[in-house]
Design brief:
Layout: E1 6-8, E2 14-16, E3 25-26, E4 35-40, E5 44-49, E6 54-58, H1 60-74, E7 79-85, E8 88-93, E9 98-102, E10 107-108, E11 118-123, E12 127-132, E13 137-141, H2 149-155, E14 165-171, E15 174-179, E16 184-188, H3 195-201, E17 207-211, E18 219-223
Antiparallel strand pairs: 1-2, 3-6, 4-5, 5-6, 7-8, 8-9, 9-10, 11-12, 12-13, 14-15, 15-16, 17-18
């Protein structure tokens, strides 16, 4: 697993990539082993260890400007899932609660919708999306006051994706959920590249990865189920 600044080796060690223009520093120290996963935002990264703890890495500028927020995120325990996109981030805790934030605002965001228990979460550049313990899908905006077609498309979950979901992924302004039969349903704003339609046509897949961020090329990868 690689991000712009960090990597996760096959033996679950975090390493700093040499060819990067965004060197990040962990504080107060590098995460202990073993590491479960990592994700990188605009100028910071977040690591989840197997003991369900969080470790933050950031540029010196971000540590100077956002140190209190990053320290509060690092203090959160019992984390089972994380996702970061640009300035947004979201954590899922073992009790089904979530914690979300925006580093540009330098603050945590309200628990929306409140009172739900979640089993999977993800975030994009304008939105968060989650699956509750009953398999229902909800997407909500980072900024409720933002009124444009891209933001509306990012949270417009289609009827075919609202129920019976088991996994969720998000990237930029597109999200996708997987159902029990292995198929994926996507929605969002793909800037006319046809990514949403391609995801909806791939059929059962064990996992998918996708990107749609103009002027970069749209990318879609998936792992097909093993044939009997």
């Amino acid at each position: 697993m690689l991000t712009a600044s960090l990597g996760l080796s096959l033996d679950n060690k975090v390493f700093h990539r040499q060819a990067t223009n965004k060197p990040l520093t962990f504080r107060p120290h590098d995460p202990p082993l073993p590491v479960r996963t990592l994700s990188q935002g605009a100028d910071y990264a977040i690591v989840l260890t197997e003991d369900q703890r969080i470790y933050m890495a950031a540029t010196d500028q971000v540590w100077t400007q956002r140190d209190k927020l990053l320290e509060k995120i690092s203090a959160i325990q019992n984390v089972v899932k994380l996702d970061v996109w640009s300035h947004n981030g979201i954590l899922l805790k073992s009790d089904g609660s979530i914690v979300s934030w925006n580093t540009r605002r330098n603050s945590f965001l309200p628990d929306y919708p409140p009172g739900k228990k979640w089993k999977d979460v993800a975030c994009g550049v304008l939105h968060y999306v989650g699956i509750d313990v009953d398999g229902n899908v909800t997407a909500w905006p980072v900024d409720p006051d933002l009124d444009d077609k891209v933001a509306h498309a990012a949270i417009a979950v289609p009827e075919s994706a609202k129920r019976g979901a088991i996994r969720v992924k998000a990237e930029s302004t597109v999200s996708a959920v997987q159902r029990h039969d292995g198929t994926w349903t996507a929605w969002g704003h793909d800037f006319g590249h046809g990514l949403v339609g391609k995801i909806n046509q791939i059929g059962p897949a064990k996992d998918i990865a996708f990107r749609t961020s103009p002027p970069k090329a749209t990318e879609l990868y998936w792992i097909e189920p093993k044939s009997e």
